[in-house]
Amino acid sequence: MARIVMKFGGTSMAGIERIRSVAARIKREWEAGNEVAVVVSAMAGETDRLVNFCREASSLYDPREYDVVVSSGEQVTSGLLAIALQAIGVPARSWLGWQLPIRTSDGHGSARIGEIDTTALSASMADRTVAVIPGFQGLAPGERVTTLGRGGSDTSAVAMAAAMKADRCDIYTDVDGVYTTDPRIVPRARKLKRVTYEEMLELASVGAKVLQTRSVGLAMKENVRVQVLSSFVDEDGNSEPGTLIVGEEEIGDMERQLITGIAHDKNEAKITLTNVPDKPGAVASIFSPLADAGINVDMIVQNVAHATGTAPKSTDVTFTVPTADLARSLDVLEKSREAIGFDAALHDPRVAKISVVGVGMRSHAGVASKMFTTLGERGINVQAITTSEIKVSVLIHEDETELAVRVLHTAYGLDAEEPATA
Ligand code: ASP
Ligand code: MG
After folding, report:
1. Which range among 40-54, 148-162, 179-193 shows the weakest confidence by mean pLDDT?
2. What's the rounded mean pLDDT across residues 86-99?
3. Ligand 1 and 177: CB distance under 6 A
4. In angstroms, what is the span from residue 271 Cα to ligand 2's centroid?
5. 134 CB less than 6 Å from ligand 1?
6. Rounded distance, CA 69 to CA 341, Å?
7. Residue 161 burial (CB < 10 Å; 0-12/13-18/19+)?
8. pLDDT higher than 70, residue 279
9. What pTM value is reported for the model?
């Protein structure tokens, strides 16, 4: 007997037929004697629809009311799933975020989960009743409804699994696992059997959008074993084995690869400030106002300072910001032009960040040089570089994304023998 949290995404909830098949799957776990709690998303497309209603009602909507509106999609699916379970003889009831309650911060629209009261859930399990919990929602200190940010029901599920000390958190989604890279770019991408929390965080934050990034951080902190599974099943009602996200100690030496995956991200834009005076405090004068404006700077390159004639030494500083924040960033920089003292703010949204990720690189040298050589041989120019202990990222021209991902996938020996058929 195991204690399992099962989470179903919007595609699995899109319509009564699919909700019935989800109920059948839950029934099998329940009949096997497991303790089961379920977290659900809204029907696919529903949250977008609700968000649009708010925007239409007023561009300056009250975020507390936005949360009341957008959290409702999950209320509907949790009730429907409880009905579908009861209809096939499985005792079930829904528990809305405020009823448990799931305590959160008051950051409306992207609240953070705090305490979860598990009294009702424990009683429900003891009684063999399946608790169905709407994801994405919680309750702020002022007793107002909150939501956790788009994609937040993954985080609800992991938080629930942590609070209930579940043996597993199974996340059913419309992809069947985590791949070495985007299979649409590289048909020979392989599905990973296991990936560490840290690798998953790097892969998720650089563009492999399987789970909400926050859910992976939470799973790592709380040591929750997360399994990503396909919600599409064979005739026996089984889905193919997915990907297990676990701690590094659970990955055997045999399975350990130098590089686990390659991610790409086109959502960054490059800014270069020319002729920034080379003096103490110069860099702070650039990045402090951006940070104050809530803009996340990612890659940073400061060129070697040079002096022309008798003018004081100056340098060019290049960095990236999210493409969506480009206009705002330029505005912030313009307002600080005097304090920073730059000449021009050049910008280019047509860049892509390519990252190779793997815990194996902790103990191996040469990963970065292989990346640069491989790209260089294909004439791909590297505009900026950043590294962490388990990741090397480069910035290249957007048009070269697919080529770069393909050649790197081959260079690090990640290609499968056969292309995936799916
Ligand atoms: N329904 C919410 C969304 O679409 C939360 C989720 O599905 O994870 O963002
Ligand atoms: Mg999702």
Report:
1. 179-193
2. 98
3. no
4. 31
5. no
6. 46
7. buried
8. yes
9. 0.84
Q: What atom in ligand 1 is closest to the CA of residue 41? A: 7
Rounded to 5°, the CA angle 420-250-211 comes to 55
Burial string for 222-241 (b: 16+ CB within 10 Å, else e) reads: eebbbbbbbbbeeeeeebee
Name the token pair of 133: 């919990």
279 CB less than 6 Å from ligand 1?
no
Residue from 13, 39, 49, 153 whose mutation best tests the ligand 1 pocket (most atoms within 8 A of CB): 153
Portion of the chain with pLDDT greater than 70, in percent? 95
Residue 28 backbone phi and psi in degrees, to 5: -65, -40
Confidence of residue 207 (pLDDT cuts 50, 70, 90): low
Domains in the chain, ordered, with CATH?
3-249 (3.40.1160.10), 262-411 (3.30.2130.10)
Provide the pLDDT for residue 256.
Answer: 65
Residue 41 CB less than 6 A away from ligand 1:
yes
